[in-house]
Amino acid sequence: MEIFVNGQALQVPDGSSVAQAVKLFAPTVEPGRGAAVALGDQVVASSRWSQTAVNAGDHLELLTAVAGG
Description:
CATH architecture: Roll
Mean pLDDT: 94
């Protein structure tokens, strides 16, 4: 099925979770490690990524922290 991550189309298997979608889109990002996800207009706690399902047409926004000055 097709979802959108940061505005880009991404094919994920039916029944995928937020965690699985993030892993496909950004393989180095781990829950609770400087990243946040919004599904639609709701922030998904990193502890819930693996339990939160995505559906065809969903829009995820993935934000990652960047260190530096």
